[in-house]
Amino acid sequence: MAEVKADMHIHIDNEVNTNYIIKILMEAQQKNLKAISLVEHNSISAYLPNGPIYEIIKNEGLSTYFSGKLVTGFECTVALENVPLSKNNFDYNDNLVHILCYGFDPNKLKNSSLFLYKKRYKRWLKDIKQMCKIGRKYGLEMPSYKFFEFEGIYFPKQFYYYIIKSSARKNDFIQKLSITENDLLNESVFARRLFEDAEGKFHFKFNSIPTLKEISLLIHKCGGYIFIAHPFYMNKKFLSGIDYVDALMEIPNYKKGISNIDGIEASYYKNTKDQTNELLEYAINHNLMYSGGSDSHPKSKACQSQIFDNDKSKTDSKSKNIIEIDKNQSFNIDEKLFQKLASVGK
Questions:
Q1: What whole-number distance in Å separates Cα of residue 86 and Cα of residue 102?
Q2: Which of the four pLDDT bands, split at 50, 70 and 90, describes residue 145?
C-alpha cells in the first residue's frame, strides 16, 4: 500500500492573508510534506484572483516556499436527501454532514450557482429572515437583517453575540425560550443546541446549505473529488465511523454509475491507530481513495501549531497547552490520490 506524507486538512479561516499562508507553506516544506491542501469552510476565496494563494503564486511562485503539491480544497457542510431508513441516524440539523472537496478548478467553480455571490446571498438572507420570524414568534427582540454580516461567521453565532451583548436581552431570551445559562455557554454550544439539534428552538432546514448531490455533481464537473471528513467525529448517533461512512455510501448517487463519494479522510488527528486502520481497510475494500489531515485551525486553542507534528509532542511558545499526538499516527494519503491531484501554480 503505497502512501505519501501529506496534510490535506489545514484551515486558513480567519487568516486568509499572504503572511499566514507563507508561514504554513514554509512549515510544510520543513516537515517534508509532499502535498497539502489549505481549506476554508464553504469558501474558495483564497484560490481566486486577489486571494492570497493566487497572489503568492502569481508574484513569487509556489516553489519559493514549498516544493510539494498545493491542492485546491475546501470543507463543505452539506445536507443529505433520500437517506435509507435503515441507516438514518443523520438527525443533525436535517441531515447535515461535512465533506472535503479537493482538486477542483476554482475558476470553473466560482461561476456555479452555488458560489455566485448574489445567489448565495439570496439563500443566506432567506435563512436570516426565517430565524427572525421564529424569534418574533417567541416574543423576542430580534435584530434587523442588516445586523448580520453575509461573509462573516456562521449566522447563528452572530446571533449569539447579539444576545449576550445585553444582559436584559439575554435574560429575556432565557425566560421566553425556557432555556438555561448552559445553553449560552459559548457560540458553538448555542448554535448546536438551538439551531442544529432537531429539538432546538430555532431548528429549521437551512436554505443556504447545498445537498450532497448538488456539491458532488458540481465538484466532479470541475475536475475534483469528494471525501468524507473525520468519520469518527461527525455524528455521534452512529456506533462507529465505519457505520457513518457506510450510511453515506448507501445514499443514492446523483448519477447512475457515478458515486457521490470518492474517498475517506482515514487518518485524522483525533483518530486512534485502530480507527485509522479500520477506515483504511474500508477504503481499500470499497475501492475508495483515502486522505489524512490535522484539521488545524488558526487561533484555535486546540490547534496551537499550523500543522500537527506527529513525531513528538509540541508546545506552543505562547501557551502552556501541549499537543500530544500518537507518535505512530501519520497523515498519509493514497499514492493513487497523490498522482491524480494537480498542484496550483505548477
A1: 30
A2: very high
Q: What pLDDT does residue 83 have?
A: 57
The pTM of the full predicted model, rounded to 2 decimals, is 0.79
What is the 3 state secondary structure string of the chain? CCEEEEEEEEECCCCCCHHHHHHHHHHHHHCCCCEEEEECECCCHHHCCCCHHHHHHHHCCHHHCCCCEECCEEEEEEECCCCCHHHCCCCECCCEEEEEEECCCHHHHCCCCCCCHHHHHHHHHHHHHHHHHHHHHCCCCCCCHHHCCCCCCCHHHHHHHHHHCCHHHHHHHHHHHCCCHHHHCCHHHHHHHHHHECCCCCCCCCCCCCEHHHHHHHHHHCCCEEEECCHHHCCCCCCCHHHHHHHHHCCCCCECCECCCCEEEEEECCCCHHHHHHHHHHHHHCCCEEEEECCECCCECCECCCCCCCCCCEECCCCCCEECCCCCCCCEEEHHHHHHCCCCCC
pLDDT tens digits for range 150-188: 877 789 999 999 999 999 999 999 999 999 999 999 998
Q: What is the pLDDT of residues 198-211, one digit of tens each?
A: 788 998 888 888 88
Which domains, and CATH codes, for the chain?
Answer: 3-114+210-340 (3.20.20.140), 117-196 (no CATH)
